Every structure is written in structure tokens, then in C-alpha cells.
Amino acid sequence: MLIMRYNGGLGNQMFQYAAVASLADKLNADFYFDCDFFNHSYSRPYQINIFQQNSREIKGLRYRILWAFRKYIKNNFLGINVYGENDFDWEKRFEQIQDNTYIFGFFQSHKYINEQLIKKHFVFRFEPDAQNLSIIRKMQDEDSISMHIRRGDYVQKKRYASVYNHLDFNYYSKALEIIANEVQKPVIYVFSDDIEWVKENLNLENCPKCKEKGARVEFISHNQGDKSWEDLRLMSNCKHNIIANSSFSWWGAYLNSNPKKIVVAPEKWFQKIQNNPDDLYPKDWIRI
User: Fold this and answer.
1) Domains contained in the chain, number
2) Confidence band, pLDDT 50/70/90 cuts, at residue 274
3) Confidence of residue 265 (pLDDT cuts 50, 70, 90)
4) CA distance 119 to 121
């Protein structure tokens, strides 16, 4: 069996699930998850159960010991192989993983994913409530564009603020111009963890096509707390997507089933780390 260590928020959990489920399918192996990350005082909750799939949780003292001493373990520990991700980009050596392996890392690359398989796994378990259903129906009838602006910990916490690239409104204006040029009447659905700041600062003056085509802006702010994952479903139901350097909106765009979707993504994810965008994004996504 394969065991993946969960780590991080919903978007990270989805990448980890997608990587190990795709690998398990290739090896015809079972796969499980070490969920000990959520037993501690972290701000990120276990949310992968919003999809129609079993938790596959596995527990054991050896996994806790393994995680604690992961920096000192090379290849094998107490009869189980160990694989740790080395960096952000796709690693070809992942393809050499065999059954009976404990795996940890973020695996944030489309190259780890069997898209056809994973889209069958990531089916929302719960039906949308009346308000979200109404929005989805409008999104499907309009030239809808999701635009995700992440602030929160990216600007408030020093350890994140110095790591992730800061996307200013210049990025979003360029992205909107690209999509607005291809649609008739853009309707921009804005998602953010700091929606009031965005309302005060968003200006479409730098998107001439938006003004020319009478673009309308809708701010989404009602999905809070344990319902915040509903924004992921809303993003995926827009016709087109502008993502932040955020795994959450990455998945919103990836799950978008519109065959003619336009996805615009930031070329640079980090400030100093040089990541390979070819590993991160599907080839048809536009990077700026």
C-alpha cells in the first residue's frame, strides 16, 4: 500500500490526494493517508471529505516516529520505503515509487495527476444551497470569470509575505484584458479572503476591454468558515478563471469543465524560488 502524509489547506490536500491516487492506480495498489497533521494546533482543517470519497485514514506509532525523524531517514524505515519531495517542481523520480511506500510533500504539479481519474474522485459530496445554486446558474448563463485575490496570511504573516510573489492589480488588469477580449459581456466574480479590501481598491480603469464591453463585478463573500470550500465549487462553474498563486484557485480552474475555458495564471509563484511553470500549469493555461 501507499501512504501519503496530509499537510496544509484544502488545495494542498487535493494535490496530495491526486498524486497518490494517480500513482496507486498506475501500480494497482491501495492508498491511505496519515492525517496526524490535523491533530495539532494548525489553522488548516481537514476538508478533503467535501468530495465523494472515503477518508482512507491510517494510524500508527511508526508513522508518527517516521514523520518526526523524516530529515534523517534516507530510504527505508521499519520495513516501509520512504519518499520525501525535494523541491516544488515535478520530480521524475516520483515515477519510480513502488508499493509499500510512505510519501510526504506537496506535489503541486499537473504532471502527477491522472486528470480523467481525479475528476471522478473530486465530485462534490453535498448539493449547493439555494444561494450558491442560484449563483451557479447565473455563472453558466453568462460570460463568467472567476478572479481570486489572496491576501490573508500572504500579507499578514512574515514567513509567508517574504516567500510568495505579491500579485498587484496590474496582474489582474492584464489577465482581465486577455479574457475580456475574447468574450461578449464579461461578468467578473471576485473571490478573496479580504473581500472588503478588494471592494475598496479594485478598479477596472486599467482594463479598457472591460469598460468597452460593460463588464459587471460581483463580489462573493457569503461562504465563510466551514462553508468556505463552496467558493471552490463556484470558481469551477465559471466559464473562465484568473487564479492567484494559490492552490485553492488552481483547483477551481482545473475542475472547470468548460472545454473552451481561458485560464490566466501568474508566471511567478514565489518571490525568490525559481519554479518551473511548465510543471505547475497545464500547457493551455496562459501565464503572465
Assistant:
1) 2
2) confident
3) very high
4) 5
Q: Which three cell numbers stand for residue 98?
A: 513502488
- pTM of the prediction? 0.93
Q: Are 117 and 33 part of one and the same domain?
A: yes
Q: What is the reported pLDDT for 161?
A: 56
* Residue 262: per-residue pLDDT: 98
Q: Which residue among 88, 121, 154 closes a domain?
A: 121
Answer with the one of 83, 98, 121 that is the final residue of a domain. 121
Rounded CA-CA distance 162/175 in Å is: 24
CB 153 within 8 A of CB 181: no
Measure the CA–CA gap between 149 and 29, rounded to whole angstroms.
39
User: Are 141 and 250 members of one domain?
Assistant: yes
For residues 172 and 260, membership in a common domain is answered with yes
Coil, helix or strand at residue 287: strand
pLDDT of amino acid 51? 96
- Domain span including residue 276: 130-287
Question: Chain-wide mean pLDDT for the chain?
Answer: 92
Three-state DSSP at 175 gives helix
CA distance 187 to 112: 33
Instruction: Taking residues 100-110, report their average pLDDT.
Output: 96
CA atoms within 13 A on the CB side of 270: 13
Q: Are both 34 and 13 inside the same structural domain?
A: yes
